């Protein structure tokens, strides 16, 4: 089985990269660092997949959580993604999505009711599933955070997930997005973040997934 691990930054998968130097996983693993944001993710992932074939693609990274019942360090499998700011701002500061504007059909492939959905997200019984929104802007203004939460009722926010979902669904590739919570989505206060714990737990989960994929292949 050939598996691709995709991440926005090297730091997010650095423990796995170090682990792979001493560990021969039961599957063939490549890694791809795309850079932060949806455009770099879409470009570099599509370019890479035009050259190599994989049985599974896994995006791994940290994320902010809207859910206060989930603590920093918790890892989840993302079941749905939304392009959070793909649309038009109204004169009163509201928002109309491309689906509201009838520029794209809410059920035009690969969308389902305006969302990108991964039916395989619940493959790992040791991970809860999550809904997520993706934006090139990490939100830190309370009014915009509240509007985002009301509009989509998401569990997580990331900067690459929807682009990753879109590419994999368009190419009909089985995939998972695994995220570890590093912080809550709130007015920015990095003293409350726990990036180190999130990265450690994320990479432990990646090793477990690769091991289990090897057992099932």
Describe the structure.
The chain is globular. The protein contains five helices and eleven strands, in the order βαβαβββββββαβαβα. The chain has helices at residues 14-22, 38-49, 142-152, 161-170, 195-216; strands spanning 2-7, 28-33, 56-65, 75-83, 87-89, 95-97, 111-112, 115-117, 128-134, 156-158, 175-184. β9, α3 (142-152) and β10 form a beta-alpha-beta unit. The longest helix has 22 residues, at 195-216. The termini are close together. The strands form two sheets. A five-stranded mixed barrel has the order 3-10-9-4-11. Strands 5-6 form a two-stranded antiparallel ribbon. It has a single domain (2-216), classed as Nucleoside phosphorylase domain (Rossmann fold, 3-Layer(aba) Sandwich), CATH 3.40.50. By secondary structure, the protein is an alpha/beta fold.
Structure summary:
The protein has 217 residues and is an alpha/beta fold. The chain is built from 5 helices and 11 strands; from the N terminus they run E-H-E-H-E-E-E-E-E-E-E-H-E-H-E-H. The strands form 2 sheets. A 5-stranded mixed β-barrel has the order 3-10-9-4-11.
- Provide the domain count: 1
Which spans of ≥5 residues are poorly predicted at pLDDT below 50?
none
SSE pattern:
EHEHEEEEEEEHEHEH
Count the helices. How many? 5
CA radius of gyration is 17 Å
* Largest sheet, spatial ordering of strands: 3-10-9-4-11
Report the end-to-end length measured between terminal Cα atoms.
6 Å
Name the CATH homologous superfamily: Nucleoside phosphorylase domain
CATH architecture assignment name = 3-Layer(aba) Sandwich
Biggest beta sheet attributes? 5 strands, mixed, barrel
CATH class: Alpha Beta
Inertia-based shape: globular
Q: Which structural class best describes the helix and strand composition?
A: alpha/beta
What fraction, in percent, of the residue positions are helical? Answer: 25-40%
What's the number of extended β-strand segments?
11
User: What name is given to the CATH topology?
Assistant: Rossmann fold
């Amino acid at each position: 089985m050939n598996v691709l691990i995709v991440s926005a930054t090297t730091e997010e998968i650095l423990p796995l990269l170090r682990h792979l130097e001493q560990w021969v996983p039961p599957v063939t693993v490549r890694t791809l660092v795309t850079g932060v944001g949806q455009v770099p993710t879409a470009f570099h992932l599509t370019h890479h997949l035009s050259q190599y074939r994989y049985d599974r693609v896994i995006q791994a990274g940290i994320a902010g959580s809207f859910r206060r019942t989930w603590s920093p360090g918790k890892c989840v499998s993302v079941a749905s993604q939304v392009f959070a700011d793909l649309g038009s701002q109204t004169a009163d500061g509201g928002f109309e999505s491309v689906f509201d504007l009838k520029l794209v059909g809410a059920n035009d492939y690969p969308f389902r009711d305006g969302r990108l959905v991964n039916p395989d997200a619940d493959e790992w019984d040791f991970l809860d599933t999550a809904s997520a929104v993706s934006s090139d802007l990490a939100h830190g203004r309370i009014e915009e955070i509240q509007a985002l939460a009301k509009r989509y009722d998401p569990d997580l926010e990331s900067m690459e997930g929807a682009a990753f979902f879109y590419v994999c669904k368009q190419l009909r590739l089985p995939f998972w997005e695994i995220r570890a919570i590093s912080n809550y989505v709130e007015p920015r206060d990095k003293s409350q973040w726990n990036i180190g714990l999130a990265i450690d737990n994320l990479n432990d989960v990646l090793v477990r997934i690769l091991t289990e994929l090897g057992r099932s292949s």
